[in-house]
Design goal:
single chain, Rossmann fold, five-stranded parallel beta sheet, globular
Length: 324
């Protein structure tokens, strides 16, 4: 029975029509990140003459970059946004391993953001490589019972792709359940790619109240060294293969620096310096990005459509320069 289940699962998650349905109807919710990224990776073309441009990272990537400027500048070249809400370097390592099974040559565009350098990894993006980083850095000695349960749950989920994606699939059923036949005929409109564009930006009072209120959680903690190890494992592999990486020091709205700890700021800057020492990595600092006004931001850390266009066009320009 187990062999039959495994065979069915391999067929299901390699059956292109099914993957295209999932890609079309995966809702833009946080719980749908695993399904959305999984099917986009599985649908990457294997024989492109040029390495695909893959936008991988946290919600700053998901909300802050779009593929249209890359498509315009690199005609015929594949671009995919694989950002996930709250994505961390450990999640990046997980996704890079999955991408590896599909394409070895690629350009990874990612970003470093203070909060995600210290957060817990997500269960749906946790595997044996995650455990390896936690044990190698000694992080496992400092995890709470709740954090251990989340890590172990991730290991169990990854025994089966269907199990790992079950929450995402339930979300998709909310979309296609009322008319499965219409979904099979692709008559139901595709789900929107993002969530914040459908919401009004935070009002001025939000920023006035938040300025100066420090989030003490944005500081080195039990996961920090594991994230650093994961990040440099990805960088080292891309370097070994001759792949280019772009790492963005993502812009934030005026006043954000007053909401994070000095330790978080210092760690972020120190890590950017270490990353910039790698010859295959182009670190994009704030002075290389177009200026953004307050109206370009949805909140302190996420841009709106106007900011997304400006950032995407500049990053596409930088990629063309570093490759040329």
């Amino acid at each position: 029975m187990l062999l039959a289940f495994a065979a069915c699962e391999v067929f299901l998650w390699s059956f292109r029509p099914w993957l295209e349905i999932c890609a079309r109807y995966a809702p833009p919710y946080r719980a749908s990140d695993p399904l959305r990224t999984s099917v986009r990776i599985r649908l990457l073309p294997k024989n492109d003459p040029q390495p695909p441009v893959l936008l991988v990272g946290s919600s700053q990537i998901l909300e802050g970059l779009e593929c249209e400027p890359f498509d315009a500048r690199f005609s015929g070249r594949t671009c995919r946004n694989l950002g996930i809400a709250g994505g961390t370097p450990l999640d990046l390592l997980f996704l890079a391993d999955r991408i590896d099974r599909r394409v070895a040559r690629r350009v990874l565009v990612t970003g470093l953001f203070p909060q995600t350098l210290h957060s817990a990894p997500k269960a749906a993006f946790s595997d044996t490589r995650t455990l390896g980083c936690l044990f190698a850095t000694g992080a496992w000695l400092h995890l709470s019972a709740k954090e251990w349960i989340e890590v172990i749950y991730g290991q169990i989920q990854n025994l089966s792709e269907t199990l790992r994606l079950k929450d995402s699939l339930w979300d998709m059923w909310d979309v296609v359940g009322p008319g499965p036949a219409a979904a099979l005929r692709l008559e139901i409109p595709p789900q929107p790619p993002r969530t914040l564009d459908s919401k009004p930006p935070q009002p001025p009072a939000f920023f006035q109240e938040a300025m100066g209120r420090v989030n003490t959680g944005i500081a080195p903690g039990p996961f920090t060294e594991a994230h650093e190890r994961a990040l440099f494992e990805v960088i080292e592999r891309e370097s070994r293969r001759g792949n280019r990486m772009i790492v963005i020091d993502f812009p934030t709205r005026r006043g954000y620096s007053t909401t994070i700890t000095p330790e978080g700021v210092e760690h972020h800057q120190r890590l950017l310096t270490r990353v910039a020492a790698w010859t295959n990595v182009a670190v994009v600092s704030g002075d290389e990005l177009p200026p953004l006004a307050d109206d370009d931001f949805h909140d302190f850390t996420h841009v709106r459509a106007s900011g997304r266009r400006k950032l995407s066009e500049r990053i596409a320009e930088i990629l063309a320069r570093v490759e040329g």
